[in-house]
């Protein structure tokens, strides 16, 4: 409900663009990681630890199986779900307080 505020070019957009450029370079060179493609899910923390906490919890919830099991389709078959994302690492925010909050939450699921 609270807007993030002005865009931070140097501490936000520039660093994001550098990371995406690095991913493109790694994925574009078949000698670096053959048969692998790296991706990114980018979430804005709005430089607020409480908002980052909400984002981290939402992200973790999306990786967990649904509550109450998988359920069944009307024909009795199990529902088809996309495979869960494989998470290799998390890059923290530019503010330490935000990164610490997210690290504390994600540590519970490691």
Number of strands: 0
Helix fraction bin: 40-55%
Order of helices and strands: HHH
Largest sheet entry: none
Individual helix count: 3
Distance between the termini: 30 Å
What is the gyration radius calculated from CA atoms? 18 Å
User: What amount of the residues lies in strands?
Assistant: under 5%
Overall geometric form = globular
Structural class, by secondary structure, is mainly alpha
What's the mean pLDDT score? 84
Low-confidence stretches: none
Please name the defining characteristics of this protein.
single chain; 110 residues; mainly alpha; globular; membrane; transmembrane helix; receptor
Describe the structure.
The mean pLDDT is 84. This protein has helices spanning 9-28, 49-63, 96-107. Helix content is 43%, strand content 0%. By secondary structure, it is mainly α. Among the domains are: 7-41; 43-61 and 90-109, no CATH class. The longest helix has 20 residues, at 9-28. α2 packs parallel to α3 (96-107). It contains 3 helices and no strands. The two termini are 30 Å apart.
Please give the structural blueprint.
Layout: H1 9-28, H2 49-63, H3 96-107
Helix pairs in contact: 2-3
GO molecular function: G protein-coupled receptor activity
Membrane topology: Multi-pass membrane protein
Subcellular location: Membrane
At a glance:
The chain has 3 helices and no strands. The chain has 110 residues and is an all-alpha fold. Among the domains are: 7-41; 43-61 and 90-109, no CATH class.
